[in-house]
Amino acid sequence: MFARSIIRLPTTLSRGFATHTGPLSALPATLRLKTGQSFHGRSFGSPRSVFGETVFSTSITSYTESMTDPSYRGQILVFTTPLIGNYGIPSNNAPIDSQDVGVVLESQGIQCSAIVVADVAEKFSHHSAVESLASWCRRSNIPAITGVDTRAITRLLRDQGTTLGRLAIGADASAPAPVSEQYWDPSIENLVDQVSTKYPYQLNPTGKIKIAVLDFGVKANILRSLVRRNAAVTVLPWNYDFNSIRDKFDGLFLTNGPGNPGQCMEAVSILRKTLQEWNKPVFGICMGHQIIGMAAGLEAYRMTFGNRGHNQPVLALASAGSIKAGRVYVTSQNHQYALKLSDPFPQGWEPFFINCNDSSVEGIKSTPESGKKVWGVQFHPESAGGPLDTIEMFTDFLDECRVHKAENVKTPVGTTIDAASFMREQPARVQVTA
């Protein structure tokens, strides 16, 4: 009885360990959708108004990772979880070595245009937290709204699809709604070009397997998942002429990214030549998966509301490495576009995964008869956040690279890459860029 009374702290005392976020803004805020609906609340971020594409995420946790994911570029992110901000924001600095890539989160800063929450936490508590969600948004110049019915917003978006919107702050909140022509559509812009690195850079240069990464808006945990498996990673701009240097690498990786894959036809053309002439392993995630599919001859289409969250079930239709046909895997996702399921499939290719909820294509792979080792998945095996059901796909990819390297006696000598040779007079950057 005495021990129990020591362990069980009074509720008022335990709550006292949380840190107050500080005074929240008294400014009014209004989320206006192009379809005519308006939702009124109060601002807790930057006091500026923005346009964007209004989407929802079913993630229960990891709001920091979602907000720093470059795939959310240009989007007003609605969180379906009611309380957001309760564990604050960590310092975003990490070492650059064989275990980490320079940041704790998914990029150097917030990538979405704005956030919408039902109830922002006025206290936060976590051993690594250094500031509140409100402080982070204000410091990053990102507007945010709280006190709105996110369930009603989500139901609208689910029924009518992803919708253009405007988050209006302060005096703009009570102003008339914008006319239809004023709403900005991110899909008409090349968002990938905005978030991709401008110059090549290296991570873990002493790694045993040399991997080239085409950066369409890479999440840091993708790079982290590669370097922790002893890969030497060279990150290239999304439209870099990979074929001019491909023989110096043991494998090619295509990353996630924001927006419409139709804006990246330059990368599709480059990859089509790679797939025709190069026999080393290729792996793509999210946008990278769509680029692989388009290079193979499939079409991409815009989904009604996309899949965003850390709880999407997918069914494996084929076995490869750690993936077993017939098993359902729970995955983390963030995409608006998908590949069309065609019948027949392009020669040399087969479906790999299908979504258990909407039957959309979640993965493709080269057939054994093709002689190729190419995979693409629409979901994120590296999660961050989300389930780790498919994390070993990174191990599978690098194992195939090692096997191919061991079998290929014609691999050129001197497989290390000097990033400076790519950049001429530009200094190499060994950091995750947004």
TrEMBL record:
Full protein name: Carbamoyl phosphate synthase arginine-specific small chain
Lineage: Eukaryota, Fungi, Dikarya, Basidiomycota, Agaricomycotina
Enzyme Commission code(s) on record: 6.3.5.5
Species: Suillus luteus UH-Slu-Lm8-n1
Keyword terms: Amino-acid biosynthesis, Arginine biosynthesis, ATP-binding, Glutamine amidotransferase, Ligase, Nucleotide-binding
Family of the protein in this entry: Belongs to the CarA family.
Keyword Transmembrane: no
Sequence ranges assigned to domain Carbamoyl-phosphate synthase small subunit N-terminal in this UniProt record: 27-168
Domain of life: Eukaryota
One MF term in the entry's GO annotations: ATP binding
KW Ligase (keyword) present: yes
UniProt pathway: Amino-acid biosynthesis; L-arginine biosynthesis; carbamoyl phosphate from bicarbonate: step 1/1
Subunit architecture: Heterodimer composed of 2 chains; the small (or glutamine) chain promotes the hydrolysis of glutamine to ammonia, which is used by the large (or ammonia) chain to synthesize carbamoyl phosphate.
CDD domains: GATase1_CPSase
GO cellular component, one term: cytoplasm
HAMAP family in UniProt: CPSase_S_chain (MF_01209)
Catalytic activity: hydrogencarbonate + L-glutamine + 2 ATP + H2O = carbamoyl phosphate + L-glutamate + 2 ADP + phosphate + 2 H(+); L-glutamine + H2O = L-glutamate + NH4(+)
Gene Ontology terms: biological process: 'de novo' pyrimidine nucleobase biosynthetic process; glutamine metabolic process; L-arginine biosynthetic process
